[in-house]
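[job 4417] fold queue: 2 targets
>>> target A
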Amino acid sequence: MSKKAKKEKKSKAADVAGKAGDAKAKDDGTQKLGKKEYEAELFNLQVELVKLQDWVKHTGARIVILFEGRDAAGKGGIIKRIMERVSPRVFRLVALPSPTERQKTQLYAQRYIEQLPAGGEIVIFDRSWYNRAGVEHVMGFCGDKEYQKFLKGCPAFENFLVSNGVILLKYWLDVSEQEQHKRFLGRIEDPSKRWKLSPMDLESHRRWYDYSRARDAMLAATDVPFAPWYLVPSDDKKRARLNCISHILSNIPYEEIPYQAPKLPKRQKPKGYQEPALKHQVVPQRW
């Protein structure tokens, strides 16, 4: 057998092995999805998100989706894929900074209530009022009395939302200790990701078990029938994204709104208009 034939045979065997690996990943979840398979599945889900968007605009539905989880659990990655092909006027992302001095004197939920959707909107919270049950409690930013009051009152607040017709979905991204450690190291080593690693992230790495206890108490107090928590295993980012988006779609009773393709109007006549020789600065064409 010639070297060329051996090389072609080896390449073909590698392709078959790769496909077999992808098939195994489907069965037992031990391997990552292949890039092509992942991108194809993601595109199909994003098409459904566009259909959901049309339905929300048509019906005036109000939807709230909360994403919570440890630092580096993958919240941003899921949210990015949700927002990628939809309108930010319908899908609105809320990622609030630390409260101002004035906001600290308000009712705790007040600044979150301001962000709730009007008719025809989907609001995605990248962290939400559950900050009080997580970082505020663990880091001592609120007192124990305020913390206990939140855990007791949160179900009543969410019942108020749901009873007023708001569709509320709550997701906790569940990353393992080993995978979070790996992702933190990746952020340190990758210049494009260093901005993601804050002093609070470093402290959350140290306080793994404090955050574990806080998570357990939060889920026990606020996982209620009318507003349940859904856990998203997120060590495999690709699977987490596909599974979570699919779950969102399956929990909203949307229907496809018939699409009527518009007819592009003809261009107007120039009526003597001529393109001038533009003398403005032009971006250098380096590629």
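>>> target B
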Amino acid sequence: MQTIEFTNQRRQMRLSWPSLAAALVSYVCAGAWAQNPPAVNSGSEALSAAPASQAPTYLRDIQPIFMGNCSRCHNQQSRFVYNWLDYKTAYADRWEIRRRVWDSWKGSYYKEAMPIANSPESLALTDADRLAIRNWVDSGGTKGVATDANDAKSKTERIQLGRRLFTSICAACHQPTGLGRANMFPPLAGSDYLNADKSRAINIVIFGRQGEVVVNGMKYNNSMPSFPLSDQDIANVMTFVYNSFGNSGFEVTPEEVKAQRTQAPAPVTTPAAKSAFE
């Protein structure tokens, strides 16, 4: 068998052609792994061998997580960070998303984990959410199709469906109780600002809002992003909020939401209308 000799002052090494070939293959594979590290397969966390149709998709599984846990920074109004509420942007940045959401959280990536530790979003993000994001990237970053909005006809149906949206999207900032966070996010519970003007509230959910707002006598100055929600979704979640937390009991319909989409975004200095409770 033909061999190659490697000689230096300290040692002499003899490699056969098969051994040399194996070494080269190992080197190439190691380089590929460094660029796109494989999924961490350990116990129940291993990426399942389920059909592609059952793998997480962006519109069905991942965008709702981003809306609920990442949108305060990663939204269409952001100037210095990527808008992860947009599929093309999230797909292009998917490996960095995986590293920051999963690898950094596991201590195997040197950059800070996202969401930032101890932030409201980080406290709300579950292990299952992180795993879904990791699996979405590892399975190809498929766009998929959004979950059917379940065309609610009655107020009761809107409240039931809206509760799910509120829990997954709104609760990270406004809290499951609707009480908000002091000096950060205004309360929705018994909110004079919310109950004073339903049309304005719908407008804000559609277009987002930045700037100071006074709610129940307290000033807040934070931003609310615009969410890529359908008219039906917005009607559902707002009907839930209006019928929870001691609010006015208003019902919001998809037709009202559609009408507000034709209006200009509500100005920051919009004067408060008379409260629905007065």
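[job 4417] complete. Note on B: The chain has eleven helices and four strands.
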